Amino acid sequence: MDYPPKYSAWRRSGLKGSKENPLTIYRTYDETLPPTLSPNDVVIKIHAISLNYREIAMIIGTYPIGLEDQGVPCSDAAAEVVATGSAVSRFAVGDRVCPITGIGKLAGEKVDDGPSLAIGSNCPGVLREYAVFDEQHLVKIPDHLSWEEASTLPCAGLTAWNSLDGLQNVPKGAYALLQGTGGVSMFSLILCLSAGIRPIITSSSDKKLAAIKKLSPEIQGLNYKTMADQGAEVQRLTKGRGVHFVVNNTGPKSLMDDISFLCARGGTISMVGFLAGFNADWAPGDIMRLMYKAAKVKGIAVGSRSDFEDMNRYLEEKKVHFDPLLVDRPFEFANAKDAYDRLESGEFHGKIVIKME
Q: Which top-level group of life is the source organism from (predicted)?
């Protein structure tokens, strides 16, 4: 056996928290792996984990999907294959891999009608030293990426990729509006720069915007707290063209404004988050504004394995790096609670990463 019989993990303290009484996480030391593998099992040793806002939403009870009671949290990790079952054909010991986030309906080459399972929420996640996955739920990591960079790929990365339509048929000189400076927005920003899309990123912090704009002269910033007329500013920044993509992290409240920011025809709004909650103050008929612009709103549920593999091929071809996501210091596995506190503070841009000792 090429892995220990017991290992350490972190678990949520219960099933349902609230903003007033949030759950916490606690460390275990007696998790076990099977002594005998099923034919398609792959044992992975986890090297780095990255956090998403969903981790906080699960703690405070606002995540819209049911949770596993005292489950292992987190969906994004980079790992090394340390053992394989007798029938595994896609991987070998030593391969560098990421698990995919959805191991139910979006597990393989296309959507199926099986149960919806998302690691880190309603089935075990990756905030642990070792894990076992069926080989169909893993993808190889691009060789040029570090463990820390690769750990950002499964949820934030793939969500950003699909929010930008997989960078297919991008109009020349396109613009994208990215809400906030969290993982999905920052990943989207890097993808935009790699594909010639001019990003406009929003924040309530001029300090964050100034730091991010140093990455490239193509990046423009918009402070949504101090900018009285955001629509006019978007028109100015895009020279009257409007944006071709909006990556919506706030939820339905901003949707009508998002439509107004779009280019004249054929723009895309991707719904990826709910930072401003689930309520809105616009009338149902306002959604017809989409028709006038021949635009679309689409919900992003991360993506399938084939989407993930398409993204990784692109990253490999373009040699895209994600160092700008990793401006915050990595936390050690033993200090996972501190990483959660940092995530909840919002006093950072990019990704919070936990690395193994």
A: Eukaryota
Per-residue model confidence as pLDDT tens digits over 63-109: 888 899 999 999 999 999 999 999 999 999 999 999 999 876 544 44
Residues 6+ apart with CB under 8 A from 36: none
- The model's pLDDT over 198-230, given as tens digits with 9 standing for 90+, comes to 999 999 999 999 999 999 999 999 999 999 899
Q: How confident is the model at residue 317 (pLDDT cuts 50, 70, 90)?
A: very high
Identify the residue whose tokens are 């594909």: 195
What's the CATH superfamily of 158-299?
NAD(P)-binding Rossmann-like Domain (3.40.50.720)
Q: How far is CA 53 from CA 57, 69, 130, in A?
A: 6, 19, 23
Give pLDDT, residue 107: 43
6-152+322-355, CATH topology level: Quinone Oxidoreductase; Chain A, domain 1 (3.90.180)
List the chain domain ranges.
6-152+322-355, 158-299
Residue 45: strand pairing partners: 80, 130
Q: Are 315 and 146 in contact (CB under 8 A)?
A: no
